[in-house]
Write a structure and sequence with these properties.
InterPro entries: Spore_GerAB (IPR004761). This is Spore gernimation protein. It is a multi-pass membrane protein. It is found in: Membrane. Its main location: membrane. This protein is mainly alpha-helical. It has a single domain, classed as Amino acid/polyamine transporter I (Up-down Bundle). Helix content is about 75%, strand content about 0%. The chain has 15 helices and no strands. It has helices at about 10-20, 25-40, 45-65, 75-80, 85-115, 120-140, 140-165, 185-190, 190-195, 205, 215-250, 255-260, 270-300, 305-320, 325-360. The radius of gyration is 20 Å and the shape is globular. About 45% of the residues are buried.
Length: about 350
């Protein structure tokens, strides 16, 4: 009989984890971020290019992880660089996951208190969210994979309905002419869109948990393909509905899109609540995966109990989430985390892969 946490992930579950970890707060904010950076209707091209760069980074991560089967990043990084340096790198990765969890839980508080539960204390919003995630993480990666597998089709269904119904306010002329100002605005926005696609870092931890790790490239292709489709559609629909000038004035453009139309002949006349429901599910997936990866890292680095570390890290996450004083500081924290992701997961895996190959050739 299997012990808790020994479940192996199917290819579909791993894809669900990758999509769940990538599609978080960016679903609501990416249209504004991309348009602000490009200042043209061609921001959707930057989204596609950003997804291609993320795919390349994911490919490097897969190759690195497949070099050390049955081991997580925290274990094989010590084998590549030595124990001392490996533990330092591992701690940096843990700090990243903890900071990411803090950012996600604070994003949930900000959006939920503004749109759904106005006047509700912050702790009353975050506490149930964190407790449920704590319970899920007790089941480790097998339980998380099953939840992500359920969340993905629900997200796709509701997202599709919102996009189809918003066609009534969509103006194709807001997207024309394509590349009217050349390619430079598109290239300027690639950094901003690439940050939204950070998510392949979770594969450093979970590829060793796959039933068929040789199919990890299929996970990367399908996972980022789904995310690029969702994000590109969101950007196109927001620009088409609001124009470039209208998108940059909105904090949560895609949420405003869902609030911009009513349908009298359906059970739900307004769809922002449904959008927020799938958004909160995606944030929950991201939070749980990040929490698991961070806690697992500490337990493997210091060879301590996973369960004890889980409670400690959850407390630290909540404390960090209280540091930003307003929504602008929350966005600044998100930008800092994205910049750190470029260094930790855009450059570090390539360097470690080259070092491991060089040491094997010697």
């Amino acid at each position: 009989m299997k012990k808790l946490g020994e479940d192996k992930l199917t290819t579909l579950q791993t894809t669900g984890i990758l999509v769940g970890f990538t599609m978080a707060s960016g679903l609501l904010t990416l249209p504004r971020v991309a348009v602000e950076a490009s200042k043209t209707p061609d921001a959707w091209i930057s989204v596609i290019l950003g997804g291609c760069i993320a795919f390349l980074a994911g490919w490097i991560i897969v190759k690195l992880s497949q070099t050390f089967p049955q081991k997580t990043f925290y274990q094989y990084v010590q084998q590549i660089t030595g124990k001392a340096i490996g533990k330092i790198i591992g701690m940096l990765v843990v700090i990243y996951f903890v900071a990411l969890c803090a950012f996600e839980i604070r994003s949930v508080e900000e959006v939920t208190s503004f749109f759904l539960l106005e006047g509700t204390p912050a702790w009353a919003i975050s506490a149930p969210f964190m407790w449920v995630s704590l319970y899920l993480c007790m089941g480790r990666i097998g339980a998380i994979g099953k939840v992500c597998q359920i969340i993905l089709p629900i997200t796709a269904f509701i997202f599709l309905i919102i996009c189809l119904l918003s066609l009534n306010i969509f103006e194709l002329n807001n997207l024309r002419p394509v590349l009217s100002e050349g390619v430079m605005p598109v290239l300027k926005a690639i950094k901003s869109t690439s940050l939204t696609f950070t998510g392949s870092e979770c594969l450093l931890i979970i590829i060793c948990c796959m039933e068929k790790p040789e199919k990890a490239m299929k996970v990367i292709g399908s996972g980022f393909g789904i995310t690029v489709l969702f994000y590109t559609t969101a950007v196109v629909m927001c620009i088409g509905a609001f124009s470039v000038e209208g998108v940059v004035t909105r904090t949560w453009p895609f949420l405003d899109l869902a609030r911009s139309f009513e349908v009298d002949y359906l059970v739900f006349e307004r769809f922002e609540s449904l959008l927020l429901s799938i958004w909160i599910m995606q944030i929950f997936a991201t939070f749980s995966i990040g929490l698991y990866c961070g806690v697992l890292g500490l337990s493997q680095i210091f060879n301590t109990s996973y369960t004890k570390i889980l409670f400690i890290v959850l407390t630290i996450v909540y404390v960090i989430s209280r540091i930003p004083k307003n929504i602008n500081e929350v966005f600044s924290l998100g930008t800092m985390i994205g910049d750190a992701a470029i260094l930790l997961y855009g450059l570090l895996p390539l360097l470690l892969l080259l070092i491991s190959r060089w040491r094997r050739l010697r």
